[in-house]
Each structure stands twice: as C-alpha cells, then as structure tokens.
Specification:
two-stranded antiparallel sheet, TATA-Binding Protein, 2 helices, six-stranded antiparallel sheet, alpha+beta
C-alpha cells in the first residue's frame, strides 16, 4: 500500500547528456554533480554495456518493493518504495556511450531528508556491481 507515493515526475530521463538535476533538499545523490551533499561518483563497469545493463537490472530487481519503470539499452529508471509508509524514490541509471561508467540519480519524491537512504542504496549497488553480482 502506498500512503505517500508522491507524483511520478514527468521530466526524468537524459536530456543533452544529463540526468535531471537533484532537488535543493538533502534527499538525493547525483553522479553528474561534482561537489556538495548530492555529489557521488558514477558507477563503473568492465566489459560490454549490454552485460553491465543485465547485471545492473538484476541488482535493481533484487530488493522488495522495486519497480523497473523504463529500461532501454542505455537507460534504466526504477521506483523504490519504503516498507512502512510507502514513500517512493526515483532512481535513474544512464550509460553514456563508450565510457565504461553509469551515471546515477537517486532522489526522494517527498520530504526534505532521506536519512542517507539514497546514498546508501547507490553504494550498495556500486559494491554489488563491482563484485560481479
């Protein structure tokens, strides 16, 4: 049951080589931001983009209450829902051509703090991807 899902943003995706900027509140991380609270490093992968996307999609599908909304050859968008109150976080991954990196944006739809949940999520995904999960 989603008590506080918020409204799905209609401006997600990649535009001019960039994911949507993070909100001003400290409830998001973004790999295309280079300083401040929101900054995080992009994910890295070895091998082909296709294999990395398969691995990433498998990792993303793992936890409960996750829905992959969009998946293409170079982009994945998923919604993560909290167990207790049904808050939703929007998480995007973009594979720029020939870079060996995955840009990421993970942001809460509602509220002003996420207690570090978005950063922790991305770091867990980073570790699993690096371990070949």
């Amino acid at each position: 049951m989603r008590l506080f899902p918020g409204k799905r943003p209609n401006d997600l995706g990649v535009r001019n080589g960039r994911l949507k900027p993070p909100p001003p509140s400290p409830n998001a991380v973004h790999s295309q931001v280079t300083e401040g609270y929101h900054a995080t490093a992009p994910l890295r992968y070895q091998g082909t983009r296709e294999a990395a996307m398969r691995a990433l999609a498998g990792i993303v599908r793992g936890p409960p209450r996750v829905t992959i909304v969009t998946q293409t050859a170079e982009y994945l968008y998923a919604e993560y829902q909290t167990a207790l109150l049904g808050f939703v976080d929007d998480v995007e991954f973009w594979f720029p051509p020939d870079d060996g990196i995955i840009h990421v944006r993970s942001a809460s739809r509602l509220g002003s703090s996420d207690f570090g949940v978005n950063r922790q999520r991305i770091e867990e995904i980073r570790a699993r991807l690096a371990a070949g999960a």
